[in-house]
Amino acid sequence: MSDLLFEIGSEEIPASFILPATAQMEQMFTDKMGTLGLPFDSITQFGTPRRLAIVVKGIAEGQQDVEEVLLGPSKQASFDQDGKPTPAAQGFARSKGASVEDLQVVETPKGEYLQLTRTVVGKQTSELLPSLLQEIILALSFPKSMKWGANQHSFARPIQWIVALFDGKVVKFEHEGITADNKTCGHRFMAPDPVVIEDADGYEKILESVSVIGDFELRKENVLSEIEGAVAAADFGVEAEVAVHEGLLDTVTNLVEIPFGVCGRFDDKFLAVPDEVLITSMREHQKSFPVIAKDGNLLPGFVAVNNTKVVKHALTREGHERVLRARLEDAYFFYETDKKRRLEDRVNDLGGVIFQAKLGSMKEKTERVVKLTRLLSDILAPDLVDDACRAALLCKADLTTEMVGEFPSLQGVMGSSYAGSDGENDVVATAILEHYMPLRSGAELPGSEQGALVAMADRFDTIAGSFGIGQSATGTADPFGLRRLSLALLHLIEDRSYSLDLPAVIAKALALYGDRVDGSGGTVDRIVQFVRGRFVND
Fold first, then answer.
1. Which residues does 197 contact at the CB level (< 8 Å), separation at least 6?
2. Pairing of strands 51-59, 2-10
3. pLDDT value of residue 99
4. Each residue of 165-200: b (16+ CB within 10 Å) or e?
């Protein structure tokens, strides 16, 4: 049993590509070894911005010899009247690298046939690995790939080196001018010189010696430790902590080969902007973590993670603060500008925002959603009609704001905030935020009944319009996310134990589109069956 180290070194790979790529490497290697009949004990993934690697333990030294039984032509077709071999028998033997004398006649359910029994000698693993490893490089796929120079094969980023060691010896193969070797590269700035790896066992320790943490989970723990330590060393006048977002934590972990946290501050004036805006700006633009007080309130601070050791802390902190300040100034400007117009005055602007080419504008959608909300409210909650319809009227208006244009993920959040600034009551403001809920299966549902009513009306409208123009979900495509919308609709109904005449509501939703869609009974039936199908499969 021997161990293998296979590392592909490259220019910096986008953070979101790394984990899927190392998972692909593991799966492809496992599948290929299974096909070749080569067992192994374990496989471990490693990935950083500059390397994708696997370490495989306990690989068999070679394939087992296999006795192969090959059935040839029938006896009747294999020998002439004089008992001499025919071209059929000779051709079969020749194609298998044998002679006619090596063949034997066997009885089968179909009669007597020629058969060749031979022993296929298994190959050594060291012979099979060169082509296997190169096939993995060629087969790796990424959301976006590139070619460079005279290379014929694309990859996420230019490959700079390849390490391939089996039983401590280099697996010799070449990929587009790069020869596999036993030398890896450390941290680009902190340990740039190549370093020799003796065997797979020492891989992690070698990387650590050149300022690289190869294991994702270990590097993630280090990132968490760094950001928590950076906040603990800062003075905000109150007990502070990092607001850890798991998605951002994973992203930052794959942006660095070794993490160094720096805590910075921003002007208190930016706290006038809704917390969600500041947090989104920090996360999406600067990949920084917000700092909060123990009570959950946002503090004027953030933590950035560097990929190089911080020598001059003040200078590094000021650099991060300067860049973030520019982003927050933009957000502050957008927020103050947006507040100069009421949401209600923006509804007409939705006429310039396309909902779907065949289904009209967002203004037309808003008008339909208001009518559907009124219908649903009259059936389910007559006392809530006014607030629900008011929320339906304003729910899409924030799509025309500067803030949502900059941060599309803040749809609904900004509408709710601006509604509050405009003097709309809290119920309406909350319903505007909640009408996007649930965002996905298992996500939070609206807390208010008004929010649930608008959320249902919005989804009924989209589902009806999509089916009405023949854009239903198929086995391979669901461009409008109709499965997700139908599941959300079912969860909304189930959460509040609503009782609805589903065909009647769908027929009304189709009718509101007029002659833009096929509003026939057949379309209604298809939608009902589709929604019921999601209920059965959920």
1. 5, 163, 165, 182, 183, 184, 203, 206
2. antiparallel
3. 86
4. bbeeeebebebbebebbbebbbbbeebeeeeebebb
Q: Token digits for 259?
A: 């993490």
Average pLDDT over residues 163-192: 94
Residue 105: both structure tokens together: 């006649």
Q: What is the dihedral of CA 351, 353, 356, 360, to 10 degrees?
A: 10
Tokens encoding 164: 């391939």
Exposure string of 484-505, with b = 16+ CB inside 10 Å and e = fewer, is bbbbbbbbbbeeeebeeeeeeb
Residue 535: per-residue pLDDT: 77
Buried b (16+ CB within 10 A) or exposed e, 307-321: beeeeeeeebbeebb
pLDDT at 2 over 70: yes
pLDDT at 105 > cutoff 90: no
Instruction: Check if the beta carbon of residue 489 is closer than 8 Å to that of residue 456.
Output: yes
Cα radius of gyration (the chain) = 32
Confidence check: pLDDT of 501 > 80: yes
Q: Which amino acid is at 525?
A: D
CB burial class (10 A; 0-12, 13-18, 19+) of residue 235? exposed
Does a cis peptide bond (omega within 30 degrees of 0) precede residue 73?
no
Question: Tokens for 283?
Answer: 């996360």
Q: Are 327 and 281 in contact (CB under 8 A)?
A: yes
Length of the chain: 538
Q: What's the whole-number mean pLDDT along residues 492-501?
A: 92
Please report which confidence band the pLDDT of residue 538 belongs to, taking 50, 70 and 90 as the band edges. Answer: low
Among 62-76, 83-97, 354-368, the range with the most confident prediction by mean pLDDT is 354-368
Strands ordered across the beta sheet of 289-293: 240-242, 289-293, 298-306, 260-265
Kindly state the tokens that stand for 81.
């009247």
Of 77, 81, 74, which Cα lies nearest the Cα of 105?
74
If phi > 0 it is left, if psi is from -120 to 50 it is alpha, else beta; for residue 83 that is left
Helices of type H across 186-312: 203-209, 216-232, 246-253, 275-280, 286
Residue 467 in this model has a pLDDT that exceeds 70: yes
Please name the helix (run of DSSP H) or strand (run of DSSP E) that holds residue 372, with its range, or none. helix 362-380
pLDDT tens digit string along 345-397?
999 999 999 999 999 999 999 999 999 999 999 999 999 999 999 999 999 99
Long-range contacts (CB closer than 8 Å, 24 or more residues apart) made by 30-34: 32/132, 32/135, 32/136, 33/59, 33/132
